[in-house]
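Lab notebook, bench 4. The sequencing result for the construct came back, and we need a structural model before the next group meeting so we can plan mutations. Quick request posted to the team channel:

Model the 3D structure of this chain.
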Amino acid sequence: MTSSILSIGTAVPKHKIPQTQVVEFMAKAHGMKGAEQGRLRALYRASGIQDRYSTIPDYASNQLEGRSFYPPSEGLDPFPTTKARSDYYRKEGIELSVESAINCLAQTAVEAKDITHLITISCTGMYAPGLDIDLVNRLSLSKSVQRTCINFMGCYAAFVGLKAANAFCAADSKAKVLVVATELCTLHFQNKTDDDNLISNAIFGDGSAALLVAADTSLGPEVQLRPLTFHNEIFSEGEQEMAWNIGDFGFEMKLSAYVPVLIEKGIKNLVQQLKDQVAVDEIHHYALHPGGKRILEVIEQELGLDKSQDWAGREVLKNYGNMSSPTVVFVLKKLFETLNAKHKGDKILSLAFGPGLTVESMILEVI
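Done. Here's the predicted structure in token form:
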């Protein structure tokens, strides 16, 4: 591979919302009482999540009059339309994107005007002129920067962005690629009580992550991450188990409880194929996408890991929930912050999952 990750920047909305508050909002929105409400609280306690972030403050309040996005009615009627949510995304998504990008660039010698390629990633909103052009204008990037938009690929999309960035660097040794993944997952809350929606409402949060990728390692800090190899597979039997569709009242997520079973069946073989590509025998660090607590448990079990080896994924799940595409980048950043010169040569295994059912994997080296 010819590229290195020079820096990672992240951003979350100002509204930090404890799970204990979200569950009260959900119980009221669903009209749940008694045993139903008890089961919902048990689901939230078992999620492994302590806090999430949302651009929408309503989830932290039980006061109907204080809502800023949802109507002040018990049943949330009239429920926000897809257009209303799209308008909100256009307003709020760019703010998080700018913040994560600035945080990323601040760690290097690269100035915004020197960025040659911009890759934007999102599955929770789309418009045109889009997030990419808004970033060009807000960051004062070159008007001739090469732009690529990766949309609607879900939680594994950051890997696709990194592969594209690496390809740009392979084609041009002077390329400086800014990758920005931004999701407002909580914008698409669905007021339905089937299992898939209850699970989705319990785990997803909002966030943004940016990576700067270049072939010239002199532009970044002393310690960097170099992708060594990528590998992906589609577990076709899971096609209907994880999906993301556009409905009349926002984007509708399907996240089946069967997903961990599918991952359990195929993850060990996939990881072995990945390692064989570069003859890597030992993995020193793990950056696993925390799609949910059960998914992490299954991966740990199949790869023979203990919780301490998967600390970064578990910490991100606890403090942010699943933010879709930026999530695995948050995990990488947690690891990045603990590395120093003595870790050079260490190998990192990273995994993420999404619609398809698609599994993306990557091995990086600390350089």
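The first helix runs from residue 19 to 30.
Will bring this to the meeting.
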